[in-house]
Design a protein that fits this description.
heterodimer; A: mainly alpha; MetI-like fold; two-stranded antiparallel sheet; B: mainly alpha; 2 domains
Chain lengths: 311, 324
């Protein structure tokens, strides 16, 4: 009888079994689609793969490190694409993190029209599609009045055409005269030029930070107020340490996100499905994944050391 | 007038009142700065959308008129008419929404189940397995795209398909691979949803379940009738995320070569070529206007759903413990 059988199990064992039952679909999927696929990707990268359209399936021929050597020594664009992607990511991550923290703090305050503003802020999450994005960039350029102005702007170089556009060069010269380091100026310039990318990439991060800010107990702020702390001190002594764990979450999310949308992915996709060089494509994916993971470990380790955990 | 100045002077003399005035001025300044920043950022977000809308209703002459800014002189709905026909809007959109919503439902069910399993049950290797969920979030999906492509191109689990159909199945071009992956908790960003649900369930009081257990409620019944109902904030969060991301997804749609009739954003990518070839509109600038109309049509249902759900969504995000 089955009833006798179940009675023999202790409650702990029973809970254990139901626990496994709950995660079973995912566990199966993870083993089949992730673990197996990762092993296969590694395998592909060390071999030459030929598809056999008649029989179906594929044949592998081991070529050792040839694919890796080709990717780094002979391939025309891989190294360049990889370094640009990493460079862009390194510029974007701190900017997105701090911008979203700043915006979250603004949005967390109570003010009229708060719901409308929040709804607008999460719109970029909705428009997060490559087809829409490219059209948006175009229309953004057109916003400066008619299409003809856009083309004249393009022909005379970005930023200098059309009288309505503020000349950035003037300000750059101004700051250079003030003796600001060029590297810093370049960084700020890059940030200003990419403001749209940064805003549209920080929707989820703003959400995470708003949730984090709301989870800070109000009593901490009350105490700080009674003790006479200024807003500046309150931020650095309470708000910042309290959201620190979520900064890790956000940095991880931003790094992963910026890599999934980077040029490397496009390159790997095209190599596999347009040039049918599967081995090389696996090398691209693998190398970029390893680099992402190394960056993640370094960055998370770096932040974690300085993180304060409330509980 | 004089008495105002007198009272103002009196205010300045009294130190307490002076402080109050100073604070008022400071608050006002802070508010103005905050308002300016918020309006500015909102403009940056909204301007491309306004631009797309304006382009989609402007006529050929407006497009070349440099005087036209935001308000077209001769607004026209002609672009929408043509695009509506060319992308077969209603049937395609219905199919796409069916595909997206069904995947969303599966995501919610599977991911909440897994999240609940991790949050409430003790079993060996739990830490390690949850680490695997995090790995799933972190590993970019392009790393595993080739093997997955191979798997579904010659789909033959345990030789079953060969046994039944005599040959392995080629599932490319159909949405079946996406469904299979989602059912097994490996769909688009499933790792993130599992994480969200796990964090939420961990925050719920254990007493609810204990009460259910005492009343003789089974594990599955508890999960479906009690926990899932209580998890409404995170259900809405995951629903909006998965709906939007699935709708916009081009990576898996391209990988599995899912037909244009099901994924409308793929149709948008080829819309410009369609307009050029079928309707002989060869001016690329004018083609762009049609493309903009197409984009407006495509995002319309998602924006409507978002507007309907956004209040719950934002509240849900705040309470769902997305961060833990």
């Amino acid at each position: 009888m089955s009833k006798v059988k179940t009675k023999k199990m202790t409650l702990v064992q029973k809970r254990m079994r139901s626990g496994y039952m709950f995660i079973l679909p995912w566990l199966f999927g993870f083993l089949v689609f992730y673990v197996r696929s990762l092993i296969m990707t590694v395998q592909f990268s060390f071999s030459e793969l030929t598809m056999d359209p008649n029989v179906g399936g594929y044949a592998l021929e081991s070529v050792g490190f040839d694919n890796f050597i080709y990717a780094f020594r002979a391939h025309a664009t891989f190294k360049q694409v990889l370094t640009t992607s990493i460079g862009n990511m390194l510029v974007d991550v701190p900017l997105i993190t701090f911008f979203s923290l700043f915006m979250a703090m603004l949005l967390n305050k109570k003010f009229p029209g708060r719901f409308l503003v929040r709804a607008i802020f999460f719109l970029p999450i909705i428009f997060n599609s490559s087809a829409i994005q490219s059209a948006m960039e175009l229309s953004e350029a057109m916003m400066s009045g008619g299409i003809s102005t856009m083309s004249s702007e393009l022909s005379s170089g970005a930023g200098t055409g059309a009288g309505a556009v503020v000349s950035i060069d003037y300000f750059v010269d101004l700051f250079m005269d003030l003796g600001l380091p060029m590297a810093l100026l370049d960084y700020v310039m890059a940030a200003v030029q990419r403001i749209n990318d940064i805003i549209s990439a920080s929707g989820v991060q703003i959400i995470i930070f708003i949730a984090a800010l709301q989870s800070i107990p109000g009593s901490l702020y009350e105490v700080a107020k009674i003790e006479g702390a200024t807003g500046y001190e309150t931020f650095w002594k309470i708000t910042f340490p309290m959201v620190m764990p979520h900064i890790i979450t956000n940095v991880v999310y931003t790094i992963v996100d910026s890599f999934t949308e980077s040029e490397v992915v496009t390159l790997a996709y095209n190599t596999a499905f347009k040039q049918f060089n599967y081995g090389l494509s696996s090398v691209f994916s693998l190398v970029s994944t390893i680099i992402t993971c190394v960056i993640l470990v370094v960055v998370v380790g770096f932040i974690q050391k300085r993180t304060f955990y409330y509980n | 007038m004089n008495q105002y100045i007198e009272s103002f002077k009196a205010t300045l003399r009294d130190s307490d009142q002076r402080k109050g005035l100073f604070n008022d001025v400071k608050n006002l300044a802070v508010n103005i700065v905050r308002f300016a920043i918020i309006v500015g950022v909102c403009y940056v977000i909204l301007s491309p959308i306004i631009g797309i809308f304006v382009n989609s209703i402007s006529s050929d002459r407006d497009a070349y008129n440099p005087m036209v800014y935001i308000l077209p002189h001769n607004p026209t709905l002609e672009r929408y008419q043509l695009v509506w026909e060319r992308i077969e809007y209603l049937p395609t959109m219905a199919k796409d929404l069916l595909y997206t919503v069904s995947l969303m439902a599966i995501q919610i069910l599977v991911c909440s189940m897994v999240g609940y399993g991790f949050a409430r049950f003790e079993f060996p290797f739990k830490k390690l397995l949850f680490g695997c969920v995090v790995v799933m979030i972190v590993i970019p999906s392009h790393t595993i795209m080739l093997p997955i492509y191979m798997t579904f191109k010659d789909f033959d689990p345990l030789g079953l398909c060969t046994l039944i159909f005599g040959d392995s199945l080629n599932l490319m071009g159909s949405p079946i691979p996406m469904y299979i992956m989602t059912v097994f908790g490996c769909g688009l960003r499933s790792g993130l949803y599992i994480y969200i649900f796990n964090q939420f369930f961990r925050g719920l009081p254990k007493e609810i379940e204990e009460a259910a257990l005492v009343d003789g409620c089974g594990t599955w019944y508890t999960y479906f009738r009690i926990m899932l109902v209580n998890a409404m904030p995170s259900v809405i969060t995951v629903a909006v995320f998965s709906l939007v991301w699935q709708f916009n997804d081009t990576f898996y749609a391209k990988l599995f070569l899912i037909s244009e009739d099901i994924v409308i954003s793929n149709k948008i990518s080829s819309l410009q070529a369609t307009i050029a070839n079928t309707d002989q509109i060869l001016d690329t600038t004018i083609q762009e206007l049609y493309l903009d109309a197409g984009i407006m049509l495509v995002v319309l249902p998602i924006v409507l759903i978002y507007i309907l759900l956004q209040r719950h969504f934002i509240e849900g995000v705040e309470r769902s413990g997305i961060v833990g």
